[in-house]
């Protein structure tokens, strides 16, 4: 199968028939074999019965219905698990992303060899409340992750099958899929300017809390990606640094007291600061040990993504 399209959706009943028909048209024009996974993320409107009807008239349309609303990341993750196509394309259900972009995104994966291609809504049809913070968000993410993308959170993306089978998204981490993919070792990450349209039906499902959650998620992803398998290197280094600074201050106060001035240690405010810093330092250090114990118990502590193996056995014996 050439393409799996994954569409996370919540309360998008009006858009679905139009979207399905449009995708179908594009796929037929280009003679792609395809499937469409509509993942109903706990809709309270009639989205699910619309999906049921669509799937009756087109066998390429498949559906998953969550028992309740888990969030866009969970819906994508579920789609990633079931997708069969060699190229996986995600898009929003609200018709803001155009299915006409599918062939271009597909070609960048199969012809140009990208692992992941993210859409870039260069001309964006969203309220200014969204576009300005989003610029700041993209800038920060580029600076921290080293990935040069203009639009991390674009719903329209294409992936090599291997990428979606190797990554996991949860919480609200769909905004950082390129960062997660990079940490998993997929380096060829590209960008394609895509057409964006204003929302035709329904309302946006994300409010301003997206920015707070967004930055917290970025902090977790950066931390887990870098130190997930060696937390002591983070907590140990930071803890030792804190402790050392506190100790030097305390030592300085002690030397000054004995050598020159006869003050009480507790008369010096700096003394309390030194104590505080030393306590924080030791706590960070000990947190490092606990984190090591936790990661030691993680089921995937020794799972690495292998790209290729050279082994002098018959090809079918080589296990990747
Ligand atoms: N969505 C979802 N679960 C949620 C929230 C949103 O599956 O909890 C879907 C939504 O139906 C849409 C896509 O995620 O298909 C993007 O959401 P939305 O259009 O509201 O975001 P915006 O375009 O405003 O950033
Ligand atoms: Mg939208």
From TrEMBL:
Protein species of origin: Chitinophaga caeni
Key word Transmembrane present: yes
One GO-annotated biological process of the protein: lipopolysaccharide biosynthetic process
Domain of life: Bacteria
UniProt keyword list: Cell membrane, Glycosyltransferase, Lipopolysaccharide biosynthesis, Membrane, Transferase, Transmembrane, Transmembrane helix
InterPro entries documented for this protein: Glyco_trans_2-like, Glycosyltransferase_2, Nucleotide-diphossugar_trans
UniProt-recorded Gene Ontology molecular function terms: undecaprenyl-phosphate 4-deoxy-4-formamido-L-arabinose transferase activity
Gene Ontology CC entries for this record: plasma membrane
Keyword GTP-binding: no
Span of domain Glycosyltransferase 2-like: 4-165
Transmembrane segments: 234-258, 270-291
Name of this chain's protein: Glycosyltransferase
One Pfam short name: Glycos_transf_2
Gene3D superfamilies registered for this protein in UniProt: Spore Coat Polysaccharide Biosynthesis Protein SpsA, Chain A
